[in-house]
Amino acid sequence: MRHFPGNWIQAREIPLHIRDTHPCEVFGVSISQTGLASTAEAASEPAKPPPRRRLHLAGNALWLTVPALLLLLGVVGYPLLTIVLRSFSEPMWGLQNYVWFFGTPVNLVVLQRTFEVSAWVTLACVICAYPYAYMMTAVGPLLRMLLVLCVLVPFWVSGVVRTMAWVILLQDSGVINSALRWAGFGTVRLIRTQQGVVIGMTQVLLPFMILPLYSVMRGIDLRLVQAARSLGARPSRAFLQVYLPLSLPGVYAGAIIVFILALGFYITPALLGGPRSTMLSTLVQNQVLSLLNWGRGGAMGVVLLVATFILLALAAPLMRQRHRQGARR
Amino acid sequence: MLYSRKEFGRSRLVALLGMLAVSMPLATATIAAAQDKPVAGEVKEGSLKGKTLTFVSFGGIYQDGQIAALQEFIDRSGVRLLSDGPTEMAKLQAQVESGNVTWDVVDTADFAPYVHCGKLFQKLDLSKLDTSHIPPGQVGECNVPAMNYGMIIMYNTEKYKDNPPKDWKDFFDTEKFPGVRAIDGSGDPIAGLIEQAFIAAGGDASKMTAADIDKGIAKIRELGPDTIFWKTGAESQQLAEAGEADLIMMWTGRAMTAARNGAKYTPVWKDWLVVMDHLAIPVGARDPDASYALINAYLGRKSQEILTEKTSYSPIHNEAQPKVDETTAAYLTSTPERIRQGYQHNIPFWVQHYAPTVEKWTELMAGN
Amino acid sequence: MQIHTRIVLGLVCMLVAVWLVAPTLVVIPMSFNENKSLAFPPVGFSWQWYENFLTNPEWSSSFFNSLKVASLVAVVATVLGTLAAFGLDRMRNVTTSGFLRMLLITPMVVPGVVLAIGIYAVYLDTRLVGTLTGFVLAHTILAIPFVLIAVSASLEVFDKRLETAAASCGAGRLTAFRTVTLPLILPGILSGLLFAFVTSFDEIIVALFISNPYLKTLPVQIFTSITRDADPTVAAVGTILFLATSFIIAGGLLLGNRQRKG
């Protein structure tokens, strides 16, 4: 049992707010719905929650959601509709803005780059978050508190300030390059490059990967891994065939939210990137704020919006299926 | 015009007095007229109490200097001055079109007030301003100058030790002078740079045609993918202080600040690009008279001296005698020597070809 | 796990932790810079940027604007979000409630700039640019998803038989809610409130579009300051925010610990 500390069960508590704001929720999949709550967790709860839908005291509860829905309609629905309309109607009715968008090589390059950067950021997040989240489940409460703190600290400082800090870190005379030069490596160009943007964005988005991963991992029943080991599986095989598949829902959930957030990123690429690392959001902003071209800006926005929703639509069934499998386990 | 009877009576009285005045010595009349006429730099005590003005400019030491130059105006008039920026035409256009203009006085780059005169900027009533001390040829229909300055090449002193670049030809020669270039990508096309690029490509800028704009821009594009287009003066300063580009095109004020902060760069003065900023009042500004009062105070001799002392940008008052230290003096563009070295682009040509140039320039900025 | 696997794992974690924390910490030395510059390393030592933050009306007014907007948003979003969470929880039709939940959460996934230009377009027409109402409306809709998620999570584990019990003891619907439900789901509501506050306080993209000289929030002031000027005041603000949050969280942790022990 050496590799799985004995205090594993007691050590499951995490600050409430992390649990409460699980980003998986975005896709209508709550943590408890991921079906991966371990037997240990179930055992620690005195009674199973009662059936969710009750018939009395409720009446038709629809009206309770009305205020929020009205606000949503006014501040999200109507503005988005305006943008869609303008993309077809300015300067005149027709598809000209979309023809322009898909007919201009610059835009396609930027569109492709936006997806590319988002993919890199997602990959980097998975690679960094996986061992980190695992470590969070495997260490004692004090060390875990420290690890949780490190995830949350970035949230304590305004996002804009953090991006400025990245400028300080990444510039040629910055902290990273000073360290590299001191170690005798010479200068690496980081700022105003795609790599720089990826480094900065990954840091900003990492918590969105770590937290869902952690919440899934802490629910994995490690006895299954032990069982595999005792049946003669090598550690690597036990990991690949038992642990990894069980943790995949967390990876999917985190990856999809990171990817989607990355697609719409604006501040970080604007401040850390150069003209050759422009992302779609910056182009949208440029069209609207600098050129006041609502039609073209709107068309770009619609492309970004549609891409986001297509991704969501593709990812949702994948995730649903995943957690159903988990539940069947 | 509609006059009430009482006012009509009064105006008749005024007319009568006026007739009397004609017979009086001429000197008295001159004094009376002078009292109505604005004097640059002066404002009536407490005249703008309770009012708020928004002054929009490009930030950094420039806007700090402008605010410092306006401090006496703020104190005397009692106005509350807000600052905003950077100046962006689209933002102004959005305000004008939605009929909700929050900018009162706008500091703009070279072309904007000529291109947008009458549409985004009001035609100025020059009787409300004292323009008598402004250097000749700088007042437009919608604008007065805000200051004169230059765009220069700053080169990395350590990199080009014995063989430094001497002019724009060298700036465009990536073989003889390898290194990263940084160019002003803050918004408007830099006409002077396009002309210099065209010259470096073997053209004659004095006979430039619309088709030649492409040639100039192509030459800039040839500088390669490493070229940095900085978006703000702050960024250019950061580039120099962090040593991230070897040849940086900079505004003189920012160059001076970077040098003051220890950047190891040397200016190239041959053919420095002569540029100026303007002050203009947006169409639909909330209180144009207050805007005029601000501009008039700004044009005063003392304000202009303060502006130069703080920024190194050249005053637009012909009697201003700013007291500057050595570093600032080195970046002044108003000395006889500098005036001789400057390069002036063809303003009417660029105003005429503004729209297509903007489109091409934007494409260049987008990295392609 | 082999010993070298553990070492590698530990090292990776340390690197990630440093990566997460470094940008926050690097701001602190920059805030004492003597030069008006963001070049590293900072030169000398001075308090002038803190002084500037406290005395310059642009900084202080934007700070108070943010405080005002975020407080209003926290209250409005918490009320609307909690109501909606209850409504969805009580809804009989699971498909409808699932669909509505998804709708209410969309502001989280709509790309910021797209939403921002939409809101900007509508606000230009309705003259809401640079108004308190405009800010509160826009930020509330961005904060509601967080409240909804937090409150829904508490409702999910809340044993509804307790409410039934209260009702069977003769409590009215409101009394049951006030005396039984509310205290039990309060942690969820409070964390929703906190997140709503932070969401608004830190929001930049929409704010960039809808602020004007008369109403500017702190993130916008920070952003314009960064883009217009290499001004270490930004670092001072970052440090102040960092310390303030640290104290609040440390206080909360201490309090929580004492309660648990007591």
From TrEMBL, chain C:
Location(s) in or outside the cell: Cell inner membrane; Cell membrane
Highest taxon above the source species: Bacteria
Topology class, membrane: Multi-pass membrane protein
InterPro entries: MetI-like, MetI-like_sf
Signal sequence segment: none
Main location: membrane
Pfam family, one: BPD_transp_1
Keyword vocabulary terms for this entry: Cell inner membrane, Cell membrane, Membrane, Transmembrane, Transmembrane helix, Transport
Domain ABC transmembrane type-1: residue ranges: 63-252
Transmembrane regions listed in the UniProt entry: 7-32, 69-88, 100-123, 129-151, 184-210, 234-256
PANTHER family listed in its UniProt record: INNER MEMBRANE ABC TRANSPORTER PERMEASE PROTEIN YDCV
Protein family (similarity comment): Belongs to the binding-protein-dependent transport system permease family.
Protein's recorded name: Spermidine/putrescine transport system permease protein
